[in-house]
Amino acid sequence: MKTSVAHNHPPQEMRPRHRQTEHLDFVSPEGENDHVLKYKELFRALLVAVAALASWFFRYDQHGLVGAIGIAATLLGGYPIFHEALENLRQRRMTMELSMTIALVAALLIGQVLTALAITLFVLLAEILEHMTVARGKKAIANLLDLLPQTAELCNGDQVLQVERASLKRGDRILVRPGACIPVDGEVFKGTSHVDQSAITGEPLPVKKLLGSLVYAGTINQTGMIEILADKLGAETAFGKIVEAVEDAEKSRAPIQKISDQLAAYLVYFSLGAALLTFVLTSNIRSTIAVIIVAGACGVAAGTPLAILGAIGRCANAGAIVKGGRYIEQLAKIDTVVFDKTGTLTLGSPAVIRAVPAPGKSIEELLRFAGIAERNSEHPLARAIFEYAQRNIGTVGSPDKFHYDPGRGITARVEGSTIYAGSTDYLSRNGIHLPEGGIIYGLTEVLIARNQQYLGSFVIDDQLRPEAKQAVDELRSMGIQTVLLTGDSSNAAKRISRELKLDDTVAELLPQEKLNHIKALQEFKRRVAMVGDGINDAPALAQADVGIAMGSGTDVAQESADVVLIGNNLLKVAETLRIARRCRRIILQNFSGTLLVDGAGMLLAGFGILTPLLAVFIHVTSELIFILNSARLIPGGSLSALSLIEHRRPSAGQPVL
Questions:
Q1: What pLDDT is recorded for position 28?
Q2: What residues act catalytically?
Q3: Buried b / exposed e across 107-126, counting CB within 10 Å, b at 16+?
Q4: At the N or C end, where does the chain have fewer CB atoms within 10 A?
């Protein structure tokens, strides 16, 4: 239970950093030294256990040979405790090892060899179990390292070569067979398949991949053979960012970790003070030793970073990269989530939300001629209208003539008729009489006319993400206020706000004005998370207590954010907040439990009710309970899909096909 509890270094701000290396180098989380250390710990524990049994059977010979063996076993088995206590004493650091050393020395001085052996044995066993629990937490996250294959099948003309993954470069075509792991981020160049990307994005079901679909490194191709055009490699991939975030998280310290260390230090001081008071009042050395032993804060000191590491790993499994432990703590306190509109709550691509035929005109006539006029245009609004017409009436004809006036509209000829599609100004300039009131809905509207007769209009707006409403509902159920800040028009923002039932909406904002609104919320003591995707969101993302960037967002937005979603599923925002809140609850449970157990234990020990043996049992048991409580956050089910992958592949450079 190596728990340093005082004079800590200040927590570091862990911001995303640019790596110079293109590819990740992976190191096994458990090296040869770790195995040697385990064997030494087990040997010490076994030695002390044998000595304790001998001391128990020959307890009437505590001052003879058995007593001498017991003292030697205590000194040898307790060496890590004594060494740590001495080092911390030199550095003026108050630790649990120091209080345990005092208790052991006191027990030996009064001839309580069996008590000293029992204390040593319990501490060593607790150390081993604690090491195993913490190692499990790190291993669960380090299992991510096993996701990427070390080799890949490179398409080189008519041949497919087995090459080292590290030799791949952007633009390479990579063949991925059914059951194989995808080695890079890229897009499907050839073929179709379903891909299990649950380990990266958190999606429970395989996702269908077609030509042009994005795929992620570390995901499993399931049904079809596909060729991938490599785009991001190594540390640049979504997988690489997860590994980097976890590495940063292990190095960073959340503010609550400093509090847990301070609590541990205060408990050590308090237990020594209580032990001194017990000895002065009772002159009972056994009660004094029990008071020292029963108090322990290793559970909070070791359990707090374990809980934070587990939370970061669980967020990564759910599809969100948290860039440090301090942001887990901040996420747990969030009471307001601010959304950008375009590309965040919406898909960022225009879609027809309503077709409005003119009085006396049919919807079929409006769709037919609008589809013909817009068919040959590549403008996003034109494509939205054409696709809408095609979905609703089927086949759409082609124009005989087509003219596009950039920024204004389209004129097309078909079957002797002239069709106009464009803005109010464009149709008015062409002599078409429009109904009173101009643009009815206040959104983007494209008007259609045929032979000087107005046929109707299409109301176009950005499409809401399918999961947006559920995501907002989940945040509301958690008691979180939702706000929309957008540079879009007021009418467009109000439509989104009404549909999602947001708590507040402010439209037509410049980037600096978004930042000012975040500041205003913070001045009212709100804890704000900002969710955005564009360059214009970067200032607000940086100002918010926690900035959350969409996976499809710009590099500037992702660099400014503290959390990056892999993919664009807004449900991950609520899930990440839930994980952070659960982490905080577990840490606070450990805090309150430690204070309760230690307080009651010292009181009972002071009155002579707890013996030293019972005190050490309570100490060790409570510490392990708190550590295991933190371990509940460690992601389970470690990516067993990989065990299904056959690794019988030719050596690098050998032709496969």
A1: 40
A2: 340
A3: bbeeebbbbbbbbbbbbbbb
A4: C
